[in-house]
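In this supplementary section we document a worked example of the pipeline. Step one takes a protein sequence of length 122 as its only input; no multiple sequence alignment statistics are reported here. Step two produces a three-dimensional model, which step three serialises into structure tokens for compact storage. The input and output of this example are shown verbatim.
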Amino acid sequence: MRVQSEADFLARWCELLPTLREQARSNGVLDRLDRDAERVREGASAQRALRKWGPRESVGSQRGWSDRATVGLAVLPGGGRPPGAGSAEYACPRDRCARRAHRDEHGHLPRCTAFDTPMRPA
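The serialised model returned by step three reads:
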């Protein structure tokens, strides 16, 4: 079994952050999520942020932002990826995680949501 590194957790955080922001906005806690995202940008643990905001591996109730047990507040994004317009692969702009992405169907560059910058060609 492979042990996950902080870079793996950061890649996961970057991947999930847009979905987490939508959910936090609809639940009125976007400012709290944005504070934690800023802490991760400044070097705080992405693993800790994922434990707080990310989806749980087990099925059943999940800890909500209000510390009440809830079902389905944080879910994984859809499994499918839309086909990219370009063939180039893009990587973390700060070389801190292993996330890879492609341009979207409109040709837009993928963004690193953890650091709010465009990803760089890999």
